[in-house]
Here is the input.
Amino acid sequence: MTELSERPNTIPWPPLLFAGAALFALGLQALLPLPWPGGAWAAVLAMAGLFLGAAGLALDLATMLAFRRHHTTVLPHRGATRLITDGPFRFSRNPIYVGNTLLVAGAGLVFGVAWLIPAALAGALATQKLAIEREEEHLARRFGADWAGYAARTPRWLF
Here is the structure.
């Protein structure tokens, strides 16, 4: 077996990418703050952010439980031992990454840090390029036709 068949990456990219994007956004906010609405709009945005953050956290936790239930690793740099297609994986091939994106964007809305919203998207795009594409190749090699069928019927993100 090749290295990619055994594990998709040697570095756990996704948490590092989302954390790095968030830290970069906070640095930009300190140096070049973007305007943020006040008053009632700030409260509405904060409530929307709480909803997004809670949805992201719930999705992350449900996905971690699915990994545990199927006795396979949640670590993005370890090889998959099972193909999970139920639970949150019915709606997205990458529910933890969807959850992470929602968490970062939600934090931006809650704390009024506009830079966190594009940072969430940047983290998602970087994760797709540096992790998801390799993870999908790993899963295709490991699970063959089962992976192909699952990938054909389930979106990478949510759409």
